[in-house]
Amino acid sequence: MSNSEQKSDIRHPFDLRGVDALVQQGKTVISGEDSAIIELALKALEGGITATFYLKDALFTEILRRRYLTSERAKVADLHLISKEEATRIKADFNIEITDGFSSRVTCPRCESVYSTYQFIQQGIKEHGEEPVRATFSLKDASVLQSHPRQRIICQSCKMDLTIIVIIYSYLYRDWNHSYACGGTIVSRF
Q1: Residue 170 main-chain phi, psi, to 5 deg
Q2: Which helix (H) or strand (E) holds 46?
Q3: Domains contained in the chain, number
Q4: Which residue, among 16, 18, 58, has the nearest Cα to 41 in the 3D structure?
């Protein structure tokens, strides 16, 4: 074995510089065996716990398989294929490549506009800026799962807060390179 092969064979569980940067931002990093991470994510989704998981694709896929395996759960999530027209509009307006995926759709009761992937990205850019949204959608080796995110769903046409309408919601974007999902139950303000 050559010296270069020996150096590349040194075992490093992960690059700790990234962990340090996250901790400095006030975040907590958890690493664990795959089955433990799957259980943590499922408990967060089922228990109403707000958390964001950055996962390898195999774990993301397994969590979604377990969460939406039954037809009842898939129906409640109300996931639809993202149309080619919507993907084209997202590319043209935000320069974000959407190859395929699924998302839920919420129709505004006031103006009848549909809130889907395009509006999700639009609201994300307004609230967080372009860089974080682009970075999230351009992750190559990680999928993002948000459990019960603390966010309002705002109609991008008439600005009605749709959060008071939606009781159970889910959003899933998935293509061959990366994935993003969030889901939860919102207590109505009625």
Answers
A1: -155, 145
A2: helix 34-47
A3: 1
A4: 58
- Cβ–Cβ under 8 Å, residues 115 and 170: no
Across 66-75, 104-113, 167-176, least confident range: 167-176
Residue 145 · residue 136 · CB < 8 Å? no
78: left (phi over 0), alpha (psi -120 to 50) or beta: left
Q: Is residue 166 part of a domain?
A: yes
- Residue 145 has φ and ψ, to the nearest 5°, of -120, 120
- pTM, two decimals, is 0.71
Residue at token pair 């950055």:
54
Residue 171 belongs to some domain of the structure: yes
Residue type, 151: Q
Domain extent for 142: 84-190
Residue 182 lies in a domain: yes
46 CA to centre of own chain = 16
- The overall average pLDDT reported for the chain is 77
